[in-house]
Amino acid sequence: MSVSPLPAWVKRSIGKASDTSVVQQVIKQRGLHTICEEGRCPNQAECYSQKTATFLLMGGVCTRACSFCQVETGRPGKLDADEPEKVAEAVQLLGLSYVVLTSVARDDLPDQGSGRFVEVMQAIRQRCPGTLIEVLTPDFRGDRDCIARVVAAQPICYNHNIETVRRLSQAVRRSSGYDLSLKVLKTVKELAPNLATKSGLMLGHGETRAEVLETLQDLLAVGCNRLTLGQYLQPSLAHRPVERYWTPEEFQELGQIARQMGFQQVRSGPLVRSSYHASEMGQD
């Protein structure tokens, strides 16, 4: 049963249609997807009004079925051969200087979709050589070759979310795992020690403060540089319910502790998401 009523601090205006129409038109005319819409991000109106979006590669259907995620689960279709060029064109039209690329999990593909990240990055650089690119990848099942393929394309930051604490990981993420996520981040650092790595947690699944701090220590132990902490919001009644709403003051405190622990950059707040103000973190 969900916590009710919804606290005022997690409510966000849907914004004006005129503020978001430009980005929506560019995205939809090319048959592209964004995690902003597929994941029902609470910051969609703000980001779209600033002509920013996080591109969701390889379609809007995921092979995983995480209990917290709004993205559709099922059998994905074939990859769109024109997707890299379509994304690059959208980046150019929107005049983006910083881009975040994420994707659905594609366990059905031999390379789990890692090659598509590279193709899109190459296409963006051909059209917009000055644009910085951050990637937010699935776990690729921990496959070192898949991770290495993306790392070799030289993103400005490699993001992979651990999502929750160890005790709750199986229930929240189902097809992934806590240690697997740590392995991904560790592998990135082994391959490219100077590449910034980032991870994030969604609070509100029933974790304790001590468990959160333990997770932060685990992330630091594998060289993670950047951190995002946000409030989990139940997308629908079919999804995992919210166990607790952490207050803005608690998020502020956790952010301060994370910086003291050694994270170089931290975003912590109820509405913070992995890609929220990513360009500010990427260029700090």
Short description:
The protein is α/β, with parallel strands linked by helices and 284 residues long.
Protein architecture, described:
With 284 residues, the chain is of the alpha/beta class. The protein has a 7-stranded parallel sheet with strand order 1-4-5-6-7-8-9. It has helices at residues 17-29, 35-38, 44-49, 83-94, 114-127, 144-152, 169-173, 178-191, 209-221, 248-261, 278-282; strands at residues 54-57, 61-62, 72-73, 98-103, 132-136, 157-159, 196-203, 226-231, 265-268. The chain contains 11 helices and 9 strands. The protein has a single domain, classed as Aldolase class I (TIM Barrel).
Comma- or semicolon-separated keywords:
alpha/beta; TIM Barrel; 9 strands; 7-stranded parallel sheet; 38% helix; two-stranded parallel ribbon
Topology (SSEs and partners):
Elements: H1 17-29, H2 35-38, H3 44-49, E1 54-57, E2 61-62, E3 72-73, H4 83-94, E4 98-103, H5 114-127, E5 132-136, H6 144-152, E6 157-159, H7 169-173, H8 178-191, E7 196-203, H9 209-221, E8 226-231, H10 248-261, E9 265-268, H11 278-282
Parallel strand pairs: 1-4, 2-3, 4-5, 5-6, 6-7, 7-8, 8-9
